[in-house]
Design goal:
171 residues, Yope Regulator, Chain: A, 7-stranded antiparallel beta sheet, 4 helices
């Protein structure tokens, strides 16, 4: 059965016009430091708490819509982990969950210059705002946030496309 777009043509939806079964295939892809996309939020949070991580919730939003044939609900939860260490460098880690599944991670190192050297040894050099494919469905990029802090982000490309399709269908 095909999804029936409302008030849009099939061309507007592009890759979003897929059979419903296509979105139910779960493929996990590696993110930062052992985290894997589509991990359950409660499981990730429990693991971090076992490690005595300093966790805070910085976003926990849910669409107020009830499921209908026109609009499906969507929830976003973002956790901040203070004092997270990756490649020997401390920083802040953000974990974004969409519909209770890990979608992306952002690392804000406290020592950017040292981190650039370390990540260059482990992975590769990433140009500002130029995504690099690390795995079949993992992209890594770096950019600067609105406060001027440089970060590195890992995300699940397929999950990103699924979320973008939700936005196209529901806005």
């Amino acid at each position: 059965m095909l999804l029936t777009p409302t008030l849009r043509s099939i061309n507007d939806l592009g890759d979003c016009y897929l059979p419903q079964d296509a979105s139910s295939v779960v493929i996990r892809t590696p993110l930062i430091d052992g985290f894997v996309s589509r991990q359950n939020a409660a499981d990730v949070e429990a693991k971090l708490r076992q490690e005595n991580a300093k966790i805070s919730v910085i976003e926990d939003s849910k669409s107020n819509e009830q499921p209908s044939r026109f609009r499906s609900p969507l929830s976003i939860r973002v956790l901040r982990v203070a004092g997270f260490t990756y490649l020997g460098i401390q920083g802040e880690l953000l974990l974004e969950f969409v519909d209770d599944e890990l979608y992306a991670t952002w690392f804000f190192p406290t020592d950017v210059a040292r981190f650039e050297v370390e990540i260059g040894k482990q992975l590769l050099t990433v140009a500002l705002n130029q995504p690099v494919r690390l795995h079949a469905a993992t992209e890594l990029w770096t950019d600067v946030d609105y406060r001027g802090r440089k970060y590195w982000a890992w995300d699940d490309v397929n999950f990103r496309k699924k979320t973008e399709c939700w936005i196209k269908r529901n806005t």
